[in-house]
Design goal:
Layout lengths: L1 H10 L21 H23 L5 H8 L3 H29 L2 H19 L4 H29 L4 H30 L2 H22 L13 H13 L2 H31 L4 H25 L5 H26 L3 H29 L4 H19 L2 H4 L6 H22 L17
């Protein structure tokens, strides 16, 4: 552990000059190139684990219901439980890490994820599986929330948004890769093997964290006063209009994305009559749009204001969702029109996520874990709430999906203009002293 502490002192700012853990606007020494590459690679893997665990077992739902003697709603409840654990875990672990540090919680989270994945693999009934999935979600949340906090601890200036762009791209790719990977496992084994694979991934992450992720928050930069103080810091962030404005922009954009994920298979396969294979290609093409947008963001970060990139992203989300709503009354259920509108929307989200997260983490730099918890927790909370709405409001048109996405995009735009006020350039690296009041 002494070696980790020496490393932390080499790369962390002097505590005597820090306010809330970091003096705004001051640069910090970066990790060595090799160390930084390994660190970011492990953090990216930690970010991917929750989306993988969410969707990998979806192809096995029918067989799972048969094996456990459970109804389809009971099987679907296991996913809801995981998402609930993911939200609760981020809201708990993030602020606690500001007082206890990141590394121990990352190790515990990775170990817990492996353990509860094994419990899922041997679950005798749907009730045990649901409880294990909730705990798996809580443990998996550690990787997501602490990856953002560690990046905020380690990197500064134009380097930070480029790192966040990578995490956002991982978030875009993982949900697409997950069902494919799950299908490959199911081709040679049963649904229980999916959870064995996730357990093995948890063990690999545990080893990787032990090897490549040193403590990024040394004792002198931690919040004093125990757990109560760390949650008080979260309460302080909740009361900051500008900070919450950026958090809500990301959360509502996530709601638009989850509405698309929840409704797009029905729209393309049932309404437009495409095969599951063609739908997968359409879904992948839209994900490529997100990846391209993330790459553009990473290229422009440091040259173009983050608030400008965020505003463009929100504008694209709003434009794409509006196009999806208008295409039906104007041209009917046209495949090309729907696809084009959704491509624009997902590309916009590819700009919103890294820019919004970077600005929010910068404004919450005094308590990065609490800030990350609010960003990630509300992102998945709003997303999980939006996902089932498409089926609830009708399955005979693509309008419900479009209207829900448009409502979420409109709320994101109102949060941006009414709360964040991007023209005031809050959270920019060169203007990070903005109060965010």
């Amino acid at each position: 552990m002494n070696n980790w502490l020496i490393f932390d002192r080499m790369v962390s700012p002097s505590p005597s000059s820090a306010v809330g853990g970091q003096t705004p606007g001051t640069a910090r020494p970066a990790p060595r190139a090799g160390s930084a590459t390994a660190l970011v690679a492990v953090l990216a893997a930690l970010t991917a684990v929750a989306p993988l665990a969410t969707d990998m077992y979806v192809p096995g739902f029918p067989a799972m219901g048969d094996a456990l003697g459970a109804s389809s709603s009971s099987v679907q409840l296991t996913m809801t439980a995981f998402l609930a654990g993911l939200v609760a875990g981020q809201l708990l672990i993030g602020p606690v890490s500001d007082g206890l540090g990141r590394r121990r919680l990352l190790l515990a989270g990775s170990a817990g994820f492996a353990l509860f994945s094994l419990v899922c693999a041997v679950a005798p009934n749907a009730e045990v599986l649901t409880a294990a999935r909730f705990l798996q979600g809580v443990a998996g949340a550690a990787g997501m929330v602490l990856a953002r906090a560690v990046l905020t601890d380690r990197f500064h200036g134009a380097e930070l948004p480029r790192r966040f762009a990578l995490l956002s791209q991982i978030m875009g790719v993982a949900p697409i890769a997950a069902p494919v990977l799950g299908g490959a496992v199911l081709a040679v084994s049963t649904w229980r093997a999916v959870f064995v694979v996730l357990a093995a991934l948890g063990v690999l992450l545990l080893l990787a964290v032990g090897k490549a992720v040193p403590e990024s928050l040394p004792p002198e930069r931690r919040h004093s006063g125990g757990v109560k103080s760390t949650f008080r810091a979260m309460g302080g962030l909740l009361g900051r209009r500008v900070f919450m404005g950026y958090v809500l922009v990301v959360a509502f954009a996530s709601a638009a994305l989850f509405a698309y994920i929840g409704g797009s298979s029905f729209v393309f396969e049932n309404l437009h009559g495409v095969s599951p294979t063609v739908y997968s290609l359409i879904f992948a093409a839209n994900a490529v749009g997100m990846l391209i947008a993330g790459a553009v963001f990473a290229k422009l970060a440091g040259r173009v204001a983050l608030n400008t990139l965020l505003t463009v992203g929100v504008g694209l989300v709003l434009l794409g969702a509006l196009g999806q709503v208008l295409v039906v009354p104007v041209a009917g259920e046209v495949l090309a029109g729907t696809w084009a509108a959704l491509f624009v929307t997902t590309a916009g989200i590819g700009l919103v996520f890294p820019s919004g997260m970077t600005i929010a983490q910068g404004l919450g730099r005094g308590a990065p874990g609490a800030a990350s918890a609010l960003v990630g927790g509300l992102q998945f909370l709003f997303g999980a709430a939006a996902s089932p709405l498409v089926g609830l409001f009708g399955e005979h048109s693509s309008l419900p999906m479009g209207l829900i996405m448009l409502g979420a995009a409109g709320a994101a735009a109102l949060s941006l203009v009414g709360l964040a006020r991007p023209w005031q350039r809050h959270g920019e690296p060169e203007a990070s002293a903005a109060s965010g009041s």
